[in-house]
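Protein modeling request. Please complete all fields; requests missing the sequence field cannot be processed.
Requester role: graduate student
Desired output: 3D structure, token encoding
Chains: 1
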Amino acid sequence: VGPWGGAGISGRRLVVAGLAALLVLAGGVGAALAGASPRAVPSQPAAIDAGLRARLQAGDLGLLGEHVVEPGETLRGIAAGYGVSSQAVAEANGLADPDSLLVGQRLLIPVGDGASTGVGGFIGPAAVAPGGRYVRGVPTYVQQRNLSCEYAAAQIATSAVGTGVPEEAFWESVPPALNPHWGYRGNIDGWWGNTDDYGVYPEALVPTLNAYGFDGEVFYSEGDPGALRQRIDAGKPVITWLGLWGDTAVTLTDQGTYTVAAGAHVVVAYGYDEGGVHVSDPASGAYDYYPWADFSAMWNVLDGMALAVSPWEIVVQR
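Delivered output (318 residues):
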């Protein structure tokens, strides 16, 4: 999916009985890759990463969030993108050598003079409007293939609540299928906007998430904003399927009964306020903001199809 891909389902959906059994992975899933692309090198030691994440989860008000280093990025460029100095980023992460960044490394982004907030930047505490809530630490990330935005969104969401599952893990583990509830529909390197080379629905992502220690809660809200608010309030980033071209949904019956929609896209909703929804978009690799009316209309095209992500520990402690 993505504006390089498409996915969808609607209230006209009929989930085929036995779906869970069909989605069980054959054998174990390989060890998670540390980087964001096949060219990635190992990221920072786990102990350091755990220390950085502890600060985010503790609600450190001096932080905007975190950034996952992409191939070719520099400390100066990353800092400039958030409106902070490279020195501030280096100090926040204990970097003695600013040229030593590794692909896949997570950097804390501190609040600083001129730091970006709201649309186009991480939503920091000062940017939260009255009644607003958000999940801290949700990064940006650019999908690696034309129609891989569901997998990229899963990488974004898992990176916010644990060690991110790289999109490559989904390439290798999600099976092909005509019915996107069961697996990936079409060619992942095809062109976005059609329904043949298409994408995948949340049910087919859950086994891989489970294999890497995450819970994936599939839900259909019919566009009800309360369902989204509830998950974000609980600290869960939510992968959402949006119909960017309006209601183009078509029901198919060639492998069970399911719905596809041309022009669909997947983003990670991580925050909201009275005016709208804050998202991390894997197509652009940037943060964006949708007014509630626009977001709900696009989300409702696919019956509010969504996947809330959390670590297994949260599920066990309920």
